[in-house]
Design the sequence.
């Protein structure tokens, strides 16, 4: 087996992918910068503020569409990621008015997003031990914040931790392959899931337990990064479809 040759081809493929994908991510990067430059106050929610908050995620949706249209292939995986992004954007709208009683609806929208991502990632390989490990971690986190929760949030948080953990399990499971079969798209998927967990962990602690310094900056930067990494995983599926069409 030509391991060195395989590694060289892999590096060349990564560089070619970056060159192809980079321009399509520029709208997202610009929207990301606009959000942090404007840094609109959350104490005075507005539709303009909601649009600025949603804009980076909507630009990622544009990235998924542009990449799929450019290749002439709109894989079901990409469709599920795109629909998940739209639900995320809707969740961002609800969270803009989170202090006015819409936080739980935002959680619901993001819960649907994680279900769609889980559906996209599939159930192979299964990796039950990963599911059990994440279940233990999720249970420990829920137990830690339980005493701070009130009313419907007690059940909403339990459901959200479950769907987030399931999405992360499937992302990690699909990346747990041999070094020879590893792809950078799978690496992006698992990295996106892990960063999503970090973002939601900080958000939950800051909202329900105690103030976290610079929480909003940490939450939003990690949130946008997680969504971008998950979106980049569509490249693997697009490449496989392209190879299938050539064969």
Sequence:
């Amino acid at each position: 087996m030509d391991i060195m040759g395989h590694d060289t081809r892999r590096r060349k493929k990564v560089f070619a992918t970056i060159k192809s994908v980079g321009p399509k991510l520029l709208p997202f990067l610009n929207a990301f910068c606009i959000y942090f430059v404007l840094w609109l106050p959350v104490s005075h929610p507005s539709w303009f503020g909601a649009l600025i908050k949603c804009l980076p995620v909507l630009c990622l949706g544009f990235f998924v569409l542009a990449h799929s249209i450019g290749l002439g292939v709109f894989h079901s995986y990409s469709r599920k990621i795109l629909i998940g992004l739209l639900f995320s954007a809707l969740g961002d709208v609800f969270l803009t008015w989170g202090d006015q009683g819409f936080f739980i609806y935002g959680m619901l929208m993001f819960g649907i997003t994680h279900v769609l991502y889980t559906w996209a990632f599939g159930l192979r390989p299964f990796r039950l031990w990963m599911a059990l490990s994440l279940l233990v971690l999720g249970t420990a986190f829920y137990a830690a914040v339980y005493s701070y929760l009130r009313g419907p949030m007690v059940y909403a948080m339990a459901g959200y931790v479950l769907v987030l953990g399931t999405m992360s399990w499937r992302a990690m499971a699909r990346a747990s392959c041999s070094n020879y079969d590893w792809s950078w798209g799978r690496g992006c998927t698992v990295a996106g899931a892990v960063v999503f967990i970090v973002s939601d962990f900080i958000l939950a602690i800051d909202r329900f337990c105690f103030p976290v310094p610079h929480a909003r900056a940490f939450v939003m930067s990690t949130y946008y990064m997680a969504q971008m990494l998950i979106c980049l995983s569509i490249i693997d599926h697009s490449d496989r479809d392209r190879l299938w069409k050539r064969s």
In short: Confidence is low (pLDDT under 50) at residues 241-247.
